[in-house]
Specification:
Layout lengths: L2 H7 L5 E5 L5 E6 L6 H4 L3 E9 L2 E8 L3
Parallel strand pairs: 1-4
Antiparallel strand pairs: 1-2, 3-4
Length: 65
């Protein structure tokens, strides 16, 4: 599935964490509206769902730079 279509399908209350390949958190977003899909679509390495004490979030691993 293309990255843009995925961002259109997830809800606006979904927590999203952008991480590098070493799992260091670069940014935390609240909903897909805050993500520039054109910029990140070519940088995505992997998309995963994880959970923490606040609940489940979408983890997007991207290339730096």
């Amino acid at each position: 599935m293309r990255f843009n279509k995925l961002m259109n399908r997830i809800g606006s209350n979904t927590r999203i964490k952008l991480c590098d390949k070493y799992n260091d958190i670069l940014e935390e977003k609240k909903g897909p509206e805050e993500i520039n899909c054109k910029y990140y679509s070519k940088k995505v390495l992997m998309i995963d769902a994880e959970s923490d004490e606040k609940g489940t979030y979408l983890k997007i691993i991207i290339k730096k730079g």
